[in-house]
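Re: that backbone. C-alpha cells:
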C-alpha cells in the first residue's frame, strides 16, 4: 500500500477552542472552517494555532507502537508486563463523541511523528505541510471483514491500481466536506455550476469493466474453453472479458465472491459490453453487504447494485452524472437516489445528511455526495466532488 491509498498528512492547526467543562482537553480545528472544519480532541495546550502536526483520519489502522497505547480500552486484558501492545481491533481510528463534542481522527506532534516513523519504517519524515506520510508511519487503510465466507480470491492492488488487463483504474475514495470546505462557490450564494446530490449508500464498493481481448491467442483460448465445456459466457466471450473488483482487489470472476455474484445476477458482462473500456463504480447494498441494520428494505438474502460513477482509463476522464444515468438506463440498472440538483446554495441541503435513506425508512442515512453535473475539477486540480456524512452515522458506525 502506498501513500496514494492513505490520507495521512501534515497540516496546520487553524484554530483551538475550549470544550465546556473540560480542563485537560480541547478541540483543534484542522483544514478549512467553511462551512465546517475537521475537529479533533487533543490534550490541553498541546498545539497552538498555526502549528504543524500530523493528522490521521478515521478508517485508518495505526501500528502497534506505544504512541497509540491509549487506544487500548482494556489494558489489563491485553498488556503484558512491561509491554505497550495494542490489539488490532483497537487500532482502527474512528470518530468519537465526548459530552456532545465530535472528534474526527487523531493527531501527532512532530516529535511523535519522528518516533513512530523510527519504530515502523526507519524513515525521516519531512515537515512539509500537505505531505502524505502514512506509509512512513506504518499506517494502513481499514478494510471491512468479508461477510458470510465470501471468497478473498484475487490479486492485491500494488502501488498503482492496475486491472489484470494492464489498464490503470483508480480506486474510489472521496474527501469529506470538513476537509474541503467550499469548493463549489456556494458560500452565501448559488453554486457556480449545476450540482447533483446523490445519496451515499452504506454497502460494499464494486468496480466493473469490460475490455476487448487483444491477440489471436486469447480468442483461440476461448474457443478451446467452449469445445471442452469450460466456457463461462456470463463473464467473457471470444472478443470481450469482464473484470471484477472490490474497492481495492481485482477478483477472479469465477471465484465465487459477492462481487462476482452481483455481476452474474445483474448480467453485467452483457450490459457493460455495450460500453466497453469504461470502468463503472457502484454500491452493493443489502444485509449481506453491511449487516441487518443496512438492508435498505431488501430481503435478508438479497443484494442490489446501484451505479454511481464511471471512469474512462483511456482518456483519464470521469463521466458526468447525466452520462452515468444514461449508462444505467442502457444497462437496465439503477443509480444511487438523488436528493436535489441545480445551482444550489449551501443552505439548500445543510442538514440533509441526517434522517432515513431515500430507499427505506428503516435504514439510517449515511449521508450524501456533492458533485457537479458535468465532471469538473477545482483550480488546484482535484475533482469537484466530495462526501458529507451524517453525524449520527459517524457516531454509531464510524
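Recovered sequence:
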Amino acid at each position: 500500500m502506498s501513500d496514494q491509498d492513505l490520507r495521512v498528512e501534515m497540516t496546520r492547526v487553524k484554530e483551538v477552542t475550549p470544550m465546556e467543562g473540560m480542563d485537560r482537553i480541547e478541540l483543534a480545528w484542522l483544514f478549512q472552517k467553511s462551512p465546517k472544519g475537521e475537529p479533533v480532541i487533543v490534550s490541553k495546550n498541546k498545539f497552538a494555532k498555526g502549528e504543524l502536526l500530523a493528522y490521521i483520519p478515521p478508517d485508518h489502522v495505526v501500528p502497534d507502537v506505544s504512541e497509540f497505547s491509549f487506544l487500548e480500552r482494556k489494558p489489563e486484558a491485553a498488556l503484558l508486563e512491561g509491554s505497550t501492545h495494542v490489539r488490532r481491533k483497537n487500532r482502527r481510528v474512528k470518530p468519537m463523541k465526548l459530552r456532545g463534542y465530535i472528534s474526527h481522527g487523531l493527531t501527532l506532534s512532530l516529535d511523535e511523528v519522528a518516533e513512530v516513523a523510527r519504530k515502523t519504517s526507519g524513515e525521516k519524515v519531512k515537515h512539509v505541510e500537505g505531505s502524505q506520510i502514512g506509509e512512513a508511519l506504518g499506517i494502513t487503510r481499514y478494510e471491512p471483514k468479508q461477510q458470510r465466507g465470501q471468497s478473498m480470491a484475487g490479486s492485491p492492488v500494488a502501488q498503482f491500481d492496475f486491472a489484470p488487463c494492464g489498464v490503470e483504474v483508480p480506486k474510489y475514495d472521496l474527501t469529506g466536506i470538513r476537509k474541503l470546505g467550499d469548493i463549489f462557490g456556494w458560500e452565501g450564494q448559488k453554486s457556480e455550476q449545476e450540482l447533483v446530490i446523490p445519496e451515499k449508500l452504506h454497502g460494499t464498493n464494486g468496480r466493473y469493466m469490460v475490455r476487448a481481448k487483444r491477440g489471436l491467442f486469447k480468442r483461440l483460448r476461448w474457443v478451446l474453453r467452449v469445445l471442452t465445456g469450460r466456457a463461462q459466457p456470463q463473464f467473457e466471450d471470444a472478443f470481450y472479458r469482464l473484470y471484477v473488483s472490490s474497492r481495492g482487489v481485482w477478483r477472479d470472476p469465477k471465484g465465487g465472491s459477492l462481487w462476482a455474484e452481483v455481476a452474474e445476477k445483474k448480467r453485467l458482462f452483457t450490459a457493460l459490453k455495450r460500453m466497453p473500456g469504461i470502468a463503472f463504480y457502484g454500491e452493493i447494498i443489502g444485509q449481506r453487504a453491511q449487516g441487518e441494520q443496512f438492508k435498505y428494505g431488501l430481503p435478508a438474502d438479497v443484494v442490489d447494485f446501484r451505479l454511481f460513477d464511471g471512469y474512462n482509463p483511456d482518456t483519464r476522464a470521469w463521466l458526468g452524472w447525466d452520462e452515468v444515468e444514461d449508462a444505467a438506463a442502457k444497462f437496465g440498472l439503477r443509480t444511487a437516489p438523488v436528493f436535489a440538483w441545480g445551482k444550489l446554495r449551501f443552505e439548500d441541503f445543510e442538514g440533509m445528511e441526517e434522517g432515513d435513506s431515500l430507499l427505506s425508512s428503516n435504514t439510517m442515512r449515511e449521508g450524501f455526495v456533492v458533485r457537479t453535473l458535468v465532471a469538473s475539477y477545482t483550480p488546484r486540480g482535484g475533482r469537484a466532488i466530495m462526501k458529507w456524512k451524517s453525524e449520527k452515522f459517524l457516531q454509531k458506525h464510524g
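Residues 205 and 283 are 5 Å apart (CA to CA). The radius of gyration is 23 Å.
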